[in-house]
């Protein structure tokens, strides 16, 4: 029976063991009526390994649109005809102002995000590091950024400027990556992650589910992130954008989304598994159940090109569930 598998795997993880790939794959095939049992076990694992603290983060889309890459899900790609606001790098004052607003809304982290492949030869890089330093002087936020692929000297400069974590999603499993992007490779993403980890920084890396991948490929992604020792794993759920190649993608069922969260928690029991974009569009009023499915991190407020529920509602959800946001701890 499905629930025997769920309880046996749950006990194994709670006792310090590691779930195998085959066990995780078996959890993707359980009866739908047993998914709530899986969620409960994942919630117990989350509570046991990470307590009731929730890692909160806000982002700023500091440079929007005209990206050279052809990622099929992305509204900011120059390859797609999407009506979004396109602008160059925001001023340092505006970036710092966004950070202060995030701090006022009880975010623990602030991430500067720019559209584009990476920082090689990018004249904005020194401006971004200057903004990171200033945020460190004027707020108590943990500082992160998401700037695409990096060389070793970029990583060193960002560390010196004061970031504690770098965001660089794998986006999908290696076996599915070429189905969503062909202008750069999965291995390029892995190499940037390895450079960040080698420098002693934390890595925030996850992906997007609901892009047409199989459940097996979601499990492959989770194990790849485990192998890379990702510290924070954001799980986005595709919010199809008109004008992108995935605009007509069939959405995942809400229970399948929650099941995915739970399986990721069992594979990565002590890591931060972060609610990210698309949760409102795909889960609606079931959003709070994510925190009872193993989630212990949250991207608060709004996203790069789409609107979220707002920081106040996100914080209300945590309070109602007896969870505690990690706020304003510099590092």
UniProtKB/TrEMBL annotation:
Gene3D superfamilies: Aldolase class I. The keyword Iron-sulfur applies. [2Fe-2S] cluster binds at residues 111, 144, 204, 274. The keyword Zinc-finger does not apply. Residues 49-279 form the Radical SAM core domain. GO terms for molecular function: 2 iron, 2 sulfur cluster binding; 4 iron, 4 sulfur cluster binding; biotin synthase activity; iron ion binding. Its EC number is 2.8.1.6. SMART domains: BATS, Elp3. Homodimer. This is Biotin synthase.
